[in-house]
Amino acid sequence: MSAAAKPSSAVQVAELRRMREAGEKIAALTCYDASFALLEDRAGVDVVLVGDSLGMVIQGRNTTTAVTVADIAYHSRLVAPFLQRAFLVADLPFLSFATRERALDASQRVMQEGGAKMVKLEGGREQADIVEYLAVRGVPVCAHLGLQPQLIHKMGAFKVQGREDAAAEAMLRDAKILEEAGADLMVLECIPSSLGKRITEQAHIPVIGIGAGPDVSGQILVLQDILNISPTVTLGHKPRFVKNFMEGAPDIEGAIRAYVQAVKSAAYPAPEHCFGDAVAVPKALPGGKSRKAAGSLPKTSPAHAHRSPRR
Ligand code: KIV
């Protein structure tokens, strides 16, 4: 059999769906360059994301909003040639999908120049038209619900999303609408575990969580977070869902392998990496402790989410 005729073992959308159906957890991780792409692929990462988090972990900015399509295409180009098996997804950055035409141009660049196989875009039902426009033209789309870091200047802070009943119901509806519009994959960021579970149960496509609890089809984290070297972590703002996989690992490849293994075996996320539902907090806490100091209370405040202060 010639090389060209060999069946590809590379992960495709259909394989991600199969994994979801079979209950095999999908391990996803961000990546921005060749060296790490090779390591992630060898370590068995299923989905590699060139995320706009590169604005924070690579460019050192406070938010992701300055990241351009050219940035994403450039980093995708560095990553793509080193992935033999993993499925490459590229983010559409802030405002690059504000109109159908812009979304199509941006997708064309990150797929044709960058080598991505899918684009990811933040937003709920208001993006359904764009998702459908891309999907019917052959662009696989990953939707992104929950915390949307591109909205930081509207929100003012990174907070856990979907804790109130109305917000949770709205997110469930958004997820359904985006799937019906043609999304093939979905990321849920910083939401209560119970909502992550409900959205995953309702969906027919794989759902990847970051701070969305254990009952989703897979997990994604930022590479620099699992290696304990992101500015957020270094500056002391470790998000709740981040785990340092360098701890106990012999080297970087070992840490990435440990992450993949922990996702596959469902050892990650543990309860301490997850967000609970909002609960009524007593006005005065025993012992005069402030709410902030009460470590056992579910967090109702900013997630210190993965893009908190310097990220
Ligand atoms: O930009 C990013 O890295 C992301 C994920 C971590 C989901 O959107």
How would you sum up this structure, described in words?
The chain is an alpha/beta fold. It contains twelve helices and eight strands. It has helices spanning 13-22, 34-43, 54-57, 69-79, 100-113, 128-135, 152-155, 165-181, 193-202, 223-226, 231-234, 252-264; strands at residues 26-30, 47-50, 87-91, 118-122, 141-146, 185-189, 207-210, 218-221. The protein has an eight-stranded parallel β-barrel with strand order 1-2-3-4-5-6-7-8, surrounded by eight helices. Helix 9 links the parallel strand 6 and strand 7 (207-210). Helix 5 (100-113) crosses helix 6 and helix 6 packs parallel to helix 8 (165-181). It starts with 12 loop residues before the first helix and ends in a 47-residue tail after the last helix. The structure holds 3-methyl-2-oxobutanoic acid. 3-methyl-2-oxobutanoic acid is lined by residues 30, 49, 51-53, 91, 187, 189, 210, 220, 222.
Helix content bin: 25-40%
Which ligands does the model contain, each kind named once?
3-methyl-2-oxobutanoic acid
Structural class: alpha/beta
Helical run tally: 12
Binned strand content: 5-15%
Order of strands across the widest beta sheet?
1-2-3-4-5-6-7-8
Radius of gyration: 19 Å
Q: Order of SSEs, N→C? A: HEHEHHEHEHEHHEHEEHHH
Number of E strands:
8
Distance between the termini: 49 Å
Mean pLDDT: 89
List unreliable stretches of 5+ residues.
1-7, 279-306
The major pleated sheet works out as: 8 strands, parallel, barrel
Key features of this structure:
311 residues, alpha/beta, eight-stranded parallel barrel, 12 helices, 8 strands, globular, binds 3-methyl-2-oxobutanoic acid
